[in-house]
Amino acid sequence: MRTSLHRRRFLGLLGAAAGLGAAGVLSAPVASAAPAAAWRSVAEDVRKQTRWAWRDYVAKAFGHDQIKPVSGGFEEFFVPDHPVGLTIVEALDTLWLLELDAELEQGLAWVRGHSRFDIDAPFQVFETNIRMLGGLLSAYHCTGEARMLELAADLGERLLPAFTKSPSGVPYRFVNLATGAVSEPATNLAETGTYITEFGSLSKWTGDRRFYDAAKRAFQVTFDNRSPLDLLPYAVHAETGEWLNTTATVGPPADSYYEYLWDGWRLFGDHDLKAWYETLVAGILNHQSEVVGGHLWFAQVDAFTGAVVNRRQSELGSFFAGLLAEGGDVVEGRRYHDSWNVVQDRYGVLPEGIEYPTLAATSKGNQLRPEFADSAFNLWLVTRDELYRQRAKKHYDEMKRTSKVRYGYTILDDVTTSPPVRGDFCPGYWWSEQLKYYYLIFGDAKRFDYRDHYLSTEANLLKGARR
What we know:
Blueprint: E1 11-12, H1 37-61, E2 66-68, E3 73-75, H2 86-97, H3 101-114, E4 122-124, H4 125-143, H5 146-159, H6 161-164, E5 174-176, E6 182-183, E7 186-188, H7 190-193, H8 196-206, H9 210-224, E8 235-237, E9 247-248, H10 255-268, H11 271-287, E10 289-292, E11 295-298, E12 300-302, E13 308-310, E14 312-314, H12 319-326, H13 330-347, E15 353-355, E16 360-363, H14 371-383, H15 387-403, E17 404-405, E18 408-409, E19 412-414, E20 421-422, H16 429-432, H17 434-442, E21 454-455, E22 461-463
Antiparallel strand pairs: 1-21, 2-3, 4-5, 5-6, 7-8, 9-12, 10-11, 12-13, 14-15, 15-16, 17-18, 19-20, 21-22
């Protein structure tokens, strides 16, 4: 994977009109989910590209974690020389939603025959949770295949020591899947608060509350230690629960912490999580929002004084536009997406990082990121404004123009050159996220409940599969 943290995005649907009930968020206008013929043709193209890229993955890298689509090679993500089929697990529910059933069966057969987690090596708990555990759980939800849940339960059990061995309940960053040995207590918000939906779904489907309780306890430790401004620094020590810095950010390595507070409320009706989300987002809007050149941004600030630390913004933070809209702050969500759309208009493909007063790229690559499309999808669900389909279409077209290579789609090392400089790597999350967001926003997916669903930060479908 990329070495930077994988933010990610929750995508619980705000159901339309009266369907929002307990969530207490702004109702989405009632509108038909059926797209115009032009959008349907774009969705079909997404399906075509997915099938083509999958066939090359099968031919060149099947079973390996990630393909190198320029050279036709492969690489592993968690442990060198020890593949766990990451791309396959990430792709399963996408293949199911896109009705690519022959390709889906190829993936399921590999998982049935090869997935084992008694691996004597440290695994990053956060990435293993959102990608492997979430992928298995979504495969179970979509297909009903019991083996997927059995594997998920086994993996969840192996991740649990990261929580139970911590004196504070805040999880360590790494756990050995075979021995349960934990390591790296210096951690961050995203890697301590992005578990409630996967662990909660596992608790729900197995009847074992330990997973949900562990994830919620980790949340409470950090929330209870918030600053007087209702802000959270992003670095924390797992063993003590104490902050290791003072900087608050909505981007990495904090991002998905905020998503999963909202997600836990939407998916499980946990009123504590809703209250914690509302408290922290109010703090962010009060102390981090800044309008520069007519555009809304979120500065990195000192959590205790509110002083601006810097005005850099990670592309990963663009997820926050959709989350704001889902949580009821629709005006702010729209404005923040407008800001990122200015960046898309300037560069075509969003750079990894910018300095927002000038929009200068501070990190010039692009790791096939899905966050802008993620927010476009959520904003479209909430508002039914075709503007967000149009923005997602440009995002898709630019990806095809710049990243399509001989054996699939690759990251870019520099988006500021013409043509952009290409790398040689396709992250596993591309299969779970971008392809799915594109298909769902452009198409009328028959297997997807547009009015009542939940997609995780990794876009794993944990509610709303129409079997």
